[in-house]
């Protein structure tokens, strides 16, 4: 391959978009083996285990981590059968290391836990220090930053006690990586320096080189030229001094990425840095060929393909990228394949081969789906969302399909493309929901019996609206009850839409009088183009599947200049067309509510004195059990939901949804109720004849402009296992909630009224002061914007909107 590359025309570099995959976070190299090996090398005494160990090491060296894991699993079994505890521990550590490289971090943690238990039995403090370091790295990889830091600090302390500077050095490197992600660059460099010094003392040149490269990257992210100069040249020099190995090859790929970043971020001598990028990647390819490592070869070839792509030398870029795909296929590496398949799709699009590009993107999406769990659970402590890590592939695929639809004349073919666009966006929504809840099974058929289904049966006059943002335009897909899809193109751009959305929410929250112009502007973008079709189809309910920042605003508050959107339609929100296998609908006579709430101040939250009145009114309408204040505790909540088949769960309590699911919660009298707790409790009804039909959260809030937090709010019923939810985007005073929420339930009792229509009627009464006494109108005039915050979140087709 080396010679093949040299025959290409001379490379003239331009700016390159780098995908930092290899040396990204966590260990410098995939599954930093120094952490696992620092305690002791395995002592293999049985010929079979020795054979398995040799096969494992060879597979690992070649980058075939799945095969390495398979051999180590068998070695663990052999050692276990022979009662060889020391060797079993070492094999478990190696196996956990392979799982780490493969992105199977939870499996790695479980394997390390087994190794830790055995190590504690034999009281091997040095080996325990190494295991703690590996656990810290695994926790870091799944975004559990606090646990990662605690394990890494414990590992360092224990290594010092045991007199093992080699283990201490390896863990210091990983602690530096953790601090880098937390943007504590100065402290990170201090830890890298400690690692470098200790590594030199113990003669571990490889670990010192890793720490130098990591330190160089931290300096670049810090935009600190002085520190860059301190680390970068020694890193390159020491990397080149290493023996040819996959560590050296990965080091060169990492340095190539760092060189590219410098050329991009710093204006002086960009061509110099681009050429250094090229040289580093060429050297990595040569070493990969020498040692027979297809994985690292794939990375290096793929990034070279990007360089040529940026130079618009499409044929050469396509050649290199296809070679990268071939190398990744040799080791069955979907986490690499999807990168280069996406790149191939981009190149084919430039060449005008739209059909070929679409076919290639389909392969990329398929491979991305197989590793989506890893992307969703890796680096959750960072500020990178799934959309940024891999989600753009779905939007690029949708754009290709829309472009092809424009060229088609056959109506059936056009509909096929539009339906594939819809389904592509659905896959993105599902992935984002899993990413937020850190639950890869949240929308899988096997675990929760959820699947994508047709729209049939929701309602005869319901339409689903998909807003899809592209850099140069807004696309609106209108999914009609007969399953036909209409397409509308709006000439605005994503930045303009985002700005308008942010201003709209801010104005709506803070000043009633000033927000209508922004509501009209958004209406003109999102609804006006659809009006003719909505009228012709006699649509009376709109279900929005909002994207990105649109999740942060109440669609009901859009305004056409004469009236609000709810003056025309019932409005509901869905995170995606995700549905349970259809159970029996809950009939009104079977409705059984569990009414919970707080009137007293808990954990410095303000009291909610009107909650008692809110719950009393609902109980008069539907009956049910009430848990108020001291009685609203986790123990009572668990007991009620476990023993009684409630169909409505109403929670009038403070709650917050943030961009990190671990920081999202509801308050009970005796503590926080996390989203996992809520899933466990409400989910107890999932397989009953009448599951929880409605989950109401009447005092929760999301941060302004935080679309991930709004995604969590929209998906809370999916997480909990309820059919739908009624919730507020921002804090609603209990005075308003005590008016609107009971009126919603009152409207819901009318025969044939859907939840969306019930909310619409309640909001319309609020709008016209229809439910207000004269004494309350002064209150309403001060807080009249708040009720728009409450919206209906449809989760599953088991229930009508």
Automatic annotation (TrEMBL):
Sequence ranges assigned to domain CHAT in this UniProt record: 517-770
TPR repeats: 169-202
SMART domains, A to Z: TPR (SM00028)
Cited InterPro entries: CHAT_dom (IPR024983), TPR-like_helical_dom_sf (IPR011990), TPR_rpt (IPR019734)
Keyword terms: TPR repeat
Cited PANTHER family: RAPSYN-RELATED (PTHR10098), SLR0380 PROTEIN (PTHR10098:SF112)
Protein's name according to its UniProt entry: Tetratricopeptide repeat domain protein
Top-level taxonomy: Bacteria, Pseudomonadati, Thermodesulfobacteriota, Desulfobacteria, Desulfobacterales
